[in-house]
Amino acid sequence: MKKQVDTLKACTICPRKCGVNRLENKVGHCKTGRQAIVSGFHPHFGEEPELVGNHGSGTIFFSYCNLLCNFCQNFDISHLGDGRSVTHAELAVIMLELQHMGCHNINLVTPTHVVPQIFAALDIARNKGLTVPIVYNSSGYDRVSTLKSLEGLVDIYMPDFKFWSAEVADLTCNAPDYPDVARKAITEMHRQVGPLRTNRAGIARKGLIVRHLVLPENFAGTREISKFIVNHIAPDTYVNIMPQYRPCGLAHNVERLNRRLKAKEYLAAIKIARDQGLTRLNRF
After folding, report:
1. What is the pLDDT of residue 138?
2. Angstrom distance (rounded) from CA 176 to CA 121
3. pLDDT at 2 exceeding the cut of 60
4. What is the pLDDT of residues 104-114, one digit of tens each?
5. What's the average model confidence in pLDDT over 169-187?
6. Are 176 and 74 in contact (CB under 8 A)?
7. End-to-end Cα spacing for the chain
8. Is residue 16 one of the residues assigned to a domain?
């Protein structure tokens, strides 16, 4: 555990590699110092059915983010940092409380920039009886070296695959390396946990779920992303093609993002994904 926390001394946890000493509460791109900041936690019933079941997914929303998409639908949390700092012990208590509520899993939302803090909290929580699966719900902007440190701790990886184009990633979140980073990260996630597996009740126990938000005018590159998953991950990868895009945050600054997604664009994306060979699609 100490080794994980020590990585905050000159932070290179995520691809931004800011190098700041977060143990002294210096902050880089993610605006998060020594302690994780939690916006809220509760049983969530709006996630994938395999996570929700009858009792909900135990979501913990971490404030701030290492990617910072300009259209983020949780702009007040990711950009403005709505939330409060928590110690490792307090974070462990939150996890145990969600388990006590009957949640089927602990769903860590936007965890990339607080991996050492999560690692420390999990060590405490598991020693106190935490047994439900851990879901790593990220943007996909994760370093492979950081993911490798989580092997055996995370049961279900749930990354976004947001954009195929470096130009789009640069325009929307100042991260032109996002497509390359996401490809490598998702490949590593799949290596660790394999395809999604459920118990007899249909509740997820282990594996990979990939989320892909369809953007207007195919701005996200659905065809190329689908082709990559089929050819380099697996055709039966569980992929959630999501239609809920709406302009939020600073999306009005990008002309092609300054409107809601049309139904015909979403249906076209579903057809594209199927035509490329994806066989396990979750759709709304």
Report:
1. 98
2. 32
3. no
4. 999 999 999 99
5. 98
6. no
7. 40
8. no
Domain presence at residue 182? yes
Residue with token string 């089927």: 104
Q: Which of 239, 257, 261 minimizes the C-alpha distance to 248? A: 257
Q: How far apart are CA 72 and CA 93, in angstroms?
A: 28
Q: Which domain holds residue 192?
A: 35-283
Which pTM does this prediction carry?
A: 0.96
Number of domains in the chain: 1
CATH of the domain at 76: 3.20.20.70
